[in-house]
């Protein structure tokens, strides 16, 4: 029988952040949530997408100097700049002192070795034990438009204008020391991989908001043996151009959110933590429903407000094995010879029309 691989995790939901809210105020709210997490013996806290600022892609901001205010500078020459950044340093210091790993989203302004700047919607994983960023993910599935729509009663969604699509793909990673009693490569040198699966340091992956709706993203992680997926989101609950009342739209947005998170966890036999920025932000409604999902697809903890809230659950990563070795045993049941269309084709190509007279 698989030994227990338990840990206590949390989604640190944030209430609304307004355009004029200073970073320092946001960081203070995040620090309070970390302190609460320590009281519950949490080992890992997940914060939302773009956790440090308002969801600025709802605004038409074209002044380069103004746009720059919403991004954290990083570079090929100094990839650890985020740890030393005046905005974020207090967050990392508190996490380190409390012994809590954290993951959060932010706007990244990346300077490559040639000095070229590229802006990404980014999420990182920080290990308190290592005092280092172990992994970075850049959002792949950017929604919205590249140019403003500029119509009355139309909510803008300009992620394609502000960000480049992520270039790091869906690379899973292990987190050393997150659970006790794990196997290392040295322990398993002479052991077949099948005999060590589910016994090493936990395997994690990250997604951001719209990514959770795309099964391809989840499956890329599932094929790497992912046990825990972390996702932050800022999801619109109401847009005037969409059909339905505000209440109807919000209910549908939450339904689609739950559907995506629960299906992704179940179909890839993993736990997942989903963390919202919620409430009325600059007049725009963002859904709440931060949640923690089991490999069964069941929601095991969920937020009850649209404010700053800590959603806590104890999980046992060993529970993933039942599904990874059963209905979602990929090695036994996948038929890759029939999946070519998924990577060979991007848009829809309808089946040809039937011959004959029009009806």
UniProtKB/TrEMBL annotation:
According to the entry, every stretch annotated as the CN hydrolase domain falls at 12-317
Q: Name one Pfam family in it.
A: CN_hydrolase
Annotated source species:
Aspergillus steynii IBT 23096
Protein name, per record = N-carbamyl-d-amino acid amidohydrolase
List keywords of the entry alphabetically.
Hydrolase
InterPro entries reported in the protein's UniProt record: Aliph_Amidase/BUP, C-N_Hydrolase, C-N_Hydrolase_sf
One MF term from GO for this chain?
hydrolase activity, acting on carbon-nitrogen (but not peptide) bonds, in linear amides
């Amino acid at each position: 029988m698989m030994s227990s691989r338990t840990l206590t995790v949390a989604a640190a939901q944030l209430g609304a952040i307004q355009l004029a809210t200073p970073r320092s105020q946001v960081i203070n709210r995040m620090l309070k949530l970390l302190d609460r997490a320590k009281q519950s013996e949490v080992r890992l806290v997940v914060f939302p997408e773009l956790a440090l600022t308002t969801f600025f892609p709802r605004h038409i901001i074209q002044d380069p100097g103004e746009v720059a205010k919403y991004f954290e500078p990083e570079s090929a020459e100094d990839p650890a700049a985020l740890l030393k950044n005046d905005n974020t340093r207090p967050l990392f210091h508190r996490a380190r002192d409390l012994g809590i790993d954290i993951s959060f989203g932010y706007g990244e302004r990346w300077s490559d070795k040639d000095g070229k700047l590229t802006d990404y919607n980014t999420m990182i994983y920080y290990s308190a034990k290592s005092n280092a960023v172990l992994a970075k993910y850049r959002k792949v599935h950017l929604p919205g438009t590249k140019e403003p729509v500029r119509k009355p009663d139309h909510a803008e969604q300009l992620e394609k204008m502000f960000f480049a699509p992520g270039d790091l793909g869906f690379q899973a990673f292990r987190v050393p020391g997150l659970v006790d009693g794990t196997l290392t490569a040295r322990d398993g040198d002479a052991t077949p991989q099948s005999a060590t699966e589910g016994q090493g340091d936990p395997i994690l992956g990250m997604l951001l908001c719209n990514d959770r709706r795309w099964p391809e993203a989840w499956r890329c992680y599932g094929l790497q043996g992912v046990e825990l997926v972390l996702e932050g989101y800022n999801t619109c609950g109401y847009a005037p151009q969409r059909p339905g009342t505000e209440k109807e739209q919000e209910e549908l947005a939450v339904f689609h959110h739950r559907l995506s998170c629960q299906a992704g966890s179940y179909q890839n036999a993993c736990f997942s933590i989903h963390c919202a920025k919620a409430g009325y932000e600059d007049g725009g409604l963002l859904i709440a429903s931060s949640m923690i999902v089991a490999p069964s697809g069941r929601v095991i903890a969920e937020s009850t407000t649209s404010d700053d809230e800590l959603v806590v659950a104890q999980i046992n990563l060993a529970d993933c094995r039942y599904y990874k070795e059963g209905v979602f045993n990929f090695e036994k049941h996948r038929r890759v010879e029939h999946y070519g269309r998924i990577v060979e084709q991007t848009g829809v190509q309808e089946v040809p029309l039937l011959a004959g007279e029009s009806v």
